[in-house]
Design a protein that fits this description.
Blueprint lengths: L4 H15 L8 H14 L5 H9 L4 H11 L10 H11 L8 E5 L6 H14 L4 E7 L2 H9 L1 E3 L8 H7 E3 L7 E4 L1 H4 L2 E5 L12 E6 L8 H11 L3 E9 L12 E5 L2 E4 L1
Parallel strand pairs: 1-2, 1-7, 2-6, 7-8
Antiparallel strand pairs: 3-5, 4-5, 8-10, 9-10
Helix pairs in contact: 1-3, 2-4, 5-6
Length: 264
């Protein structure tokens, strides 16, 4: 089944309106492949027909599934490890009287949030700390809450952390691992669209906003960061992806090191 140019334009316009993310023409193969799986699950052999049905609005739940499936969710534990080393350094300077809170603002299936939690538990133990993860995709939020992952997602995880915080699956769960309860109890996940009003999340010492801005146009990038900045405590830090720069967005932030910023 092939997706017509008209259907591609219609579905990417809908996705842009729903998520703020604009998928360009070079994403045709990606979009077609993901729609193909959705259509197969519904027993629909024609992609254009599937798109027409979904965009008609007759099945809002399928629209949610479509947005979930088109959201890019490439992630793994301890991605861009320099940030976790920087985070560990910040913990030596924290005020012991205040909880240390970190927000994984595009948490996908939770690997980033749990990586943060491992660093916090390792350095702070039972002191007051919390990690919040949010993502546009309801399916990814559900997966993050389950905290069950293929073992190969942990290839970049320090061995000590894997032994300390991951439970190796057996039987039906062979080849998988479960994040330990002592981390799961300190990490919570919610659905959030970074271009829409955010849920009540409180203030944070660190916000991870990594590898998500690349999918937005310049004005949307600026709008997202401006919405996040009021949630940073004085002197707190914002992390972007190493392939992303905030320098051309005219924002009240100053660079600290590569892909690390402070509210100016």
């Amino acid at each position: 089944m092939q997706l017509s140019p008209q259907s591609f334009a219609a579905v990417t316009d809908f996705f842009h309106q729903s998520s703020g993310i604009r998928l360009s023409a070079d994403k045709l193969a990606l979009v077609q492949g993901r729609l193909q799986r959705l259509a197969n699950e519904r027993g629909d052999r024609d992609l254009d027909s599937y798109v027409r049905q979904v965009l008609s609005g007759s099945d809002p739940a399928e629209q949610v599934r479509l947005v979930d499936r088109l959201t890019t969710n490439e992630t793994y534990f301890f991605r861009e490890p320099q940030h976790f080393a920087f985070l560990a350094g910040l913990l030596t300077k924290r005020s012991a009287s205040q909880p240390f809170r970190v927000w994984s603002a595009a948490s996908s299936s939770g690997e980033e949030a749990y990586s943060i939690a491992m660093v916090l538990h390792d350095r702070l133990g039972d002191a007051a700390w919390e990690v919040v993860g949010t993502d546009l995709s309801t399916a990814m939020v559900d997966a993050a809450r389950q905290a069950l992952y293929p073992m190969n997602r942990a290839q970049n995880m320090p061995e000590y952390y894997r032994k300390q915080y991951c439970l190796k699956g057996e039987g039906a769960y062979e080849g998988q691992m479960l994040i330990h309860r002592k981390l799961r109890e300190r990490v919570r996940f919610e659905t959030a669209n970074l271009l829409e009003p955010l849920p009540a999340l409180g203030e944070f010492d660190v916000i991870f906003l990594r590898n998500v801005l690349i999918y937005f146009d310049t004005e949307s990038k600026r709008e997202i960061v401006l919405q996040l900045l009021p949630l940073l405590k004085p002197g707190a830090h914002l992390f972007s992806g190493h392939a992303e720069s905030l320098s051309n967005l005219n924002l009240p932030v100053r660079p600290v090191q590569a892909a690390v910023y402070q509210h100016a």
